[in-house]
Amino acid sequence: MTDQFSLVGQTALVTGASSGLGQHFATVLAAAGAKVAVAARRVDRLEMLATRIKGAGGQAHAVAMDVTDAASITAAFDAAEAALGPVTILINNAGVPSQSSFLKVSAEEWRETLAVNLDGVFAVGQEAAKRMAKGGQGGSIVNIASIMGTANAKTLAPYCASKAAVLSLTRSMALELARDRIRVNAIAPGYFSTEINAGFTETEPGKKMVARIPMRRFGNLPDLDGPLLLLASDAGRFMTGSVLTVDGGQLLVGV
Q: Does domain 3-247 have CATH number 3.20.20.70?
Protein backbone atom coordinates (compact mmCIF):
# COMPACT_ATOMS: atom_id res chain seq x y z
CA MET A 1 0.00 0.00 0.00
CA THR A 2 1.46 3.37 -0.96
CA ASP A 3 1.53 6.19 1.57
CA GLN A 4 -1.35 8.08 -0.05
CA PHE A 5 -3.71 5.20 0.79
CA SER A 6 -2.56 5.09 4.41
CA LEU A 7 -5.08 6.06 7.09
CA VAL A 8 -2.58 6.32 9.92
CA GLY A 9 -3.56 9.21 12.20
CA GLN A 10 -7.21 9.11 11.08
CA THR A 11 -10.27 8.14 13.11
CA ALA A 12 -13.11 6.47 11.23
CA LEU A 13 -16.67 5.76 12.30
CA VAL A 14 -18.58 3.02 10.48
CA THR A 15 -22.34 2.69 10.90
CA GLY A 16 -24.11 -0.63 10.43
CA ALA A 17 -20.86 -2.32 11.45
CA SER A 18 -22.39 -5.32 13.21
CA SER A 19 -22.58 -7.38 10.00
CA GLY A 20 -22.08 -7.50 6.23
CA LEU A 21 -20.47 -4.60 4.41
CA GLY A 22 -20.05 -2.46 7.51
CA GLN A 23 -18.18 -5.15 9.37
CA HIS A 24 -15.86 -5.64 6.42
CA PHE A 25 -15.32 -1.92 5.94
CA ALA A 26 -14.24 -1.57 9.56
CA THR A 27 -11.57 -4.26 9.23
CA VAL A 28 -10.24 -2.75 5.99
CA LEU A 29 -9.96 0.74 7.47
CA ALA A 30 -8.23 -0.61 10.57
CA ALA A 31 -5.76 -2.57 8.44
CA ALA A 32 -4.95 0.68 6.62
CA GLY A 33 -4.04 2.28 9.94
CA ALA A 34 -7.21 4.08 11.04
CA LYS A 35 -8.57 3.99 14.55
CA VAL A 36 -12.09 2.67 14.00
CA ALA A 37 -15.31 3.26 15.93
CA VAL A 38 -17.78 0.54 15.00
CA ALA A 39 -21.40 1.61 15.45
CA ALA A 40 -24.73 -0.22 15.33
CA ARG A 41 -27.54 -1.33 17.60
CA ARG A 42 -26.19 -4.85 18.22
CA VAL A 43 -23.42 -3.97 20.66
CA ASP A 44 -22.53 -7.60 21.41
CA ARG A 45 -21.53 -8.14 17.79
CA LEU A 46 -19.65 -4.84 17.74
CA GLU A 47 -17.63 -5.89 20.77
CA MET A 48 -16.62 -9.11 19.03
CA LEU A 49 -15.60 -7.14 15.94
CA ALA A 50 -13.58 -4.66 17.99
CA THR A 51 -11.82 -7.53 19.75
CA ARG A 52 -10.99 -9.13 16.39
CA ILE A 53 -9.57 -5.88 15.03
CA LYS A 54 -7.45 -5.38 18.14
CA GLY A 55 -6.22 -8.96 17.87
CA ALA A 56 -5.00 -8.18 14.37
CA GLY A 57 -3.02 -5.21 15.68
CA GLY A 58 -5.57 -2.48 14.97
CA GLN A 59 -7.40 0.01 17.16
CA ALA A 60 -11.17 -0.18 17.55
CA HIS A 61 -13.94 0.84 19.90
CA ALA A 62 -17.60 -0.26 19.90
CA VAL A 63 -20.33 2.37 20.26
CA ALA A 64 -24.07 1.86 20.35
CA MET A 65 -25.93 3.84 17.70
CA ASP A 66 -29.47 3.90 16.37
CA VAL A 67 -29.32 6.01 13.21
CA THR A 68 -33.00 6.90 13.58
CA ASP A 69 -32.45 8.48 17.03
CA ALA A 70 -30.74 11.89 17.21
CA ALA A 71 -29.71 11.51 20.85
CA SER A 72 -28.18 8.12 20.12
CA ILE A 73 -26.15 9.55 17.23
CA THR A 74 -24.76 12.38 19.36
CA ALA A 75 -23.90 10.02 22.21
CA ALA A 76 -22.15 7.62 19.83
CA PHE A 77 -19.96 10.37 18.37
CA ASP A 78 -19.13 11.62 21.86
CA ALA A 79 -18.11 8.11 22.95
CA ALA A 80 -16.11 7.46 19.79
CA GLU A 81 -14.20 10.72 20.05
CA ALA A 82 -13.54 10.28 23.77
CA ALA A 83 -11.96 6.90 23.02
CA LEU A 84 -10.23 7.50 19.69
CA GLY A 85 -10.12 11.22 18.94
CA PRO A 86 -12.03 13.42 16.46
CA VAL A 87 -13.74 11.50 13.67
CA THR A 88 -12.20 12.38 10.30
CA ILE A 89 -13.76 9.59 8.23
CA LEU A 90 -17.41 8.55 8.23
CA ILE A 91 -18.65 5.45 6.42
CA ASN A 92 -22.42 5.96 6.29
CA ASN A 93 -23.34 2.32 5.78
CA ALA A 94 -26.38 1.48 7.93
CA GLY A 95 -29.31 0.31 5.85
CA VAL A 96 -32.26 -2.05 5.74
CA PRO A 97 -33.79 -4.04 2.86
CA SER A 98 -37.37 -3.82 1.69
CA GLN A 99 -39.13 -6.21 -0.65
CA SER A 100 -42.85 -5.77 -1.19
CA SER A 101 -44.82 -5.07 -4.32
CA PHE A 102 -45.82 -1.43 -4.57
CA LEU A 103 -49.51 -2.10 -3.94
CA LYS A 104 -48.67 -4.02 -0.79
CA VAL A 105 -46.05 -1.71 0.75
CA SER A 106 -47.42 -0.51 4.06
CA ALA A 107 -46.91 3.01 5.33
CA GLU A 108 -44.87 1.51 8.17
CA GLU A 109 -42.52 -0.36 5.83
CA TRP A 110 -42.08 2.71 3.63
CA ARG A 111 -41.32 4.93 6.62
CA GLU A 112 -38.95 2.43 8.26
CA THR A 113 -36.95 1.96 5.05
CA LEU A 114 -36.51 5.68 4.45
CA ALA A 115 -35.93 6.38 8.14
CA VAL A 116 -32.82 4.18 8.13
CA ASN A 117 -31.59 4.37 4.53
CA LEU A 118 -32.10 8.09 3.95
CA ASP A 119 -32.89 9.93 7.19
CA GLY A 120 -30.11 8.03 8.94
CA VAL A 121 -27.56 8.97 6.28
CA PHE A 122 -28.63 12.60 6.62
CA ALA A 123 -28.58 12.69 10.42
CA VAL A 124 -25.28 10.86 10.90
CA GLY A 125 -23.69 12.77 8.02
CA GLN A 126 -24.80 16.10 9.44
CA GLU A 127 -23.44 15.27 12.90
CA ALA A 128 -20.11 14.19 11.45
CA ALA A 129 -19.88 17.24 9.18
CA LYS A 130 -20.63 19.67 12.01
CA ARG A 131 -17.81 18.21 14.07
CA MET A 132 -15.38 18.08 11.15
CA ALA A 133 -16.15 21.70 10.25
CA LYS A 134 -15.90 22.93 13.83
CA GLY A 135 -12.60 21.13 14.37
CA GLY A 136 -11.19 22.61 11.18
CA GLN A 137 -9.53 19.36 10.15
CA GLY A 138 -11.93 18.51 7.34
CA GLY A 139 -12.58 14.90 6.53
CA SER A 140 -14.14 12.35 4.24
CA ILE A 141 -17.73 11.08 4.26
CA VAL A 142 -18.55 8.00 2.21
CA ASN A 143 -22.23 7.22 1.79
CA ILE A 144 -23.07 3.64 0.85
CA ALA A 145 -25.72 3.72 -1.85
CA SER A 146 -26.61 0.97 -4.36
CA ILE A 147 -26.99 0.42 -8.08
CA MET A 148 -30.69 0.43 -7.23
CA GLY A 149 -30.31 4.18 -6.79
CA THR A 150 -30.05 4.52 -10.56
CA ALA A 151 -31.90 1.37 -11.66
CA ASN A 152 -35.25 -0.09 -10.71
CA ALA A 153 -36.62 -3.53 -10.02
CA LYS A 154 -40.01 -4.82 -9.04
CA THR A 155 -40.90 -5.10 -5.32
CA LEU A 156 -38.14 -2.68 -4.30
CA ALA A 157 -39.83 0.72 -4.47
CA PRO A 158 -38.93 1.94 -0.94
CA TYR A 159 -35.36 0.69 -1.23
CA CYS A 160 -34.78 2.14 -4.71
CA ALA A 161 -36.29 5.47 -3.68
CA SER A 162 -34.11 5.67 -0.57
CA LYS A 163 -30.88 4.89 -2.43
CA ALA A 164 -31.68 7.33 -5.25
CA ALA A 165 -32.18 10.01 -2.61
CA VAL A 166 -28.83 9.10 -1.01
CA LEU A 167 -27.09 9.77 -4.34
CA SER A 168 -28.76 13.18 -4.61
CA LEU A 169 -27.98 13.96 -0.96
CA THR A 170 -24.34 13.01 -1.55
CA ARG A 171 -24.01 15.60 -4.30
CA SER A 172 -25.71 18.30 -2.21
CA MET A 173 -23.47 17.57 0.77
CA ALA A 174 -20.37 17.62 -1.42
CA LEU A 175 -21.25 20.98 -2.89
CA GLU A 176 -21.91 22.67 0.44
CA LEU A 177 -19.17 21.07 2.52
CA ALA A 178 -16.24 21.52 0.13
CA ARG A 179 -15.48 24.91 1.68
CA ASP A 180 -14.89 23.13 5.01
CA ARG A 181 -12.50 20.66 3.35
CA ILE A 182 -15.01 17.86 3.80
CA ARG A 183 -15.25 15.49 0.84
CA VAL A 184 -18.48 13.56 0.32
CA ASN A 185 -18.68 10.65 -2.09
CA ALA A 186 -20.68 7.47 -2.52
CA ILE A 187 -20.13 3.83 -3.36
CA ALA A 188 -22.91 2.06 -5.27
CA PRO A 189 -22.46 -1.70 -4.92
CA GLY A 190 -24.23 -4.22 -7.11
CA TYR A 191 -25.05 -7.73 -5.95
CA PHE A 192 -22.61 -8.93 -3.30
CA SER A 193 -22.22 -12.17 -1.38
CA THR A 194 -22.83 -11.58 2.33
CA GLU A 195 -24.10 -13.60 5.28
CA ILE A 196 -27.63 -12.44 4.45
CA ASN A 197 -27.71 -14.13 1.04
CA ALA A 198 -25.31 -17.01 1.71
CA GLY A 199 -26.14 -19.92 -0.58
CA PHE A 200 -28.48 -17.90 -2.81
CA THR A 201 -26.18 -18.10 -5.83
CA GLU A 202 -26.60 -21.89 -5.80
CA THR A 203 -30.38 -21.69 -6.14
CA GLU A 204 -32.09 -21.49 -9.52
CA PRO A 205 -33.10 -17.81 -9.07
CA GLY A 206 -29.55 -17.09 -7.91
CA LYS A 207 -28.00 -18.80 -10.93
CA LYS A 208 -30.25 -16.83 -13.26
CA MET A 209 -29.24 -13.59 -11.57
CA VAL A 210 -25.54 -14.43 -11.82
CA ALA A 211 -25.96 -15.25 -15.52
CA ARG A 212 -27.14 -11.69 -16.15
CA ILE A 213 -24.04 -10.11 -14.60
CA PRO A 214 -21.41 -9.49 -17.31
CA MET A 215 -18.60 -10.72 -15.04
CA ARG A 216 -20.70 -13.81 -14.21
CA ARG A 217 -20.46 -13.63 -10.45
CA PHE A 218 -21.65 -11.76 -7.41
CA GLY A 219 -19.19 -9.34 -5.89
CA ASN A 220 -16.95 -10.46 -3.05
CA LEU A 221 -16.41 -8.08 -0.15
CA PRO A 222 -12.71 -7.45 -0.99
CA ASP A 223 -13.87 -6.05 -4.36
CA LEU A 224 -14.95 -2.97 -2.39
CA ASP A 225 -11.62 -2.41 -0.64
CA GLY A 226 -10.04 -0.31 -3.39
CA PRO A 227 -13.00 2.06 -3.84
CA LEU A 228 -13.36 2.41 -0.07
CA LEU A 229 -9.72 3.29 0.51
CA LEU A 230 -9.60 5.62 -2.49
CA LEU A 231 -12.47 7.71 -1.13
CA ALA A 232 -11.41 7.57 2.52
CA SER A 233 -7.74 8.43 1.99
CA ASP A 234 -5.61 11.17 0.48
CA ALA A 235 -5.52 9.14 -2.72
CA GLY A 236 -8.95 10.62 -3.44
CA ARG A 237 -8.19 14.07 -2.11
CA PHE A 238 -9.58 15.87 -5.20
CA MET A 239 -12.73 13.74 -5.41
CA THR A 240 -16.04 14.96 -4.05
CA GLY A 241 -19.58 14.39 -5.25
CA SER A 242 -18.47 11.23 -7.04
CA VAL A 243 -20.25 7.87 -7.16
CA LEU A 244 -18.15 4.75 -7.63
CA THR A 245 -20.22 1.90 -9.08
CA VAL A 246 -18.94 -1.56 -8.17
CA ASP A 247 -21.23 -4.07 -9.85
CA GLY A 248 -19.36 -6.29 -12.29
CA GLY A 249 -21.03 -4.47 -15.17
CA GLN A 250 -24.59 -5.11 -13.96
CA LEU A 251 -25.90 -1.65 -14.86
CA LEU A 252 -24.67 -2.10 -18.42
CA VAL A 253 -27.32 -4.75 -19.02
CA GLY A 254 -29.97 -3.66 -16.51
CA VAL A 255 -31.00 -5.27 -13.28
A: no
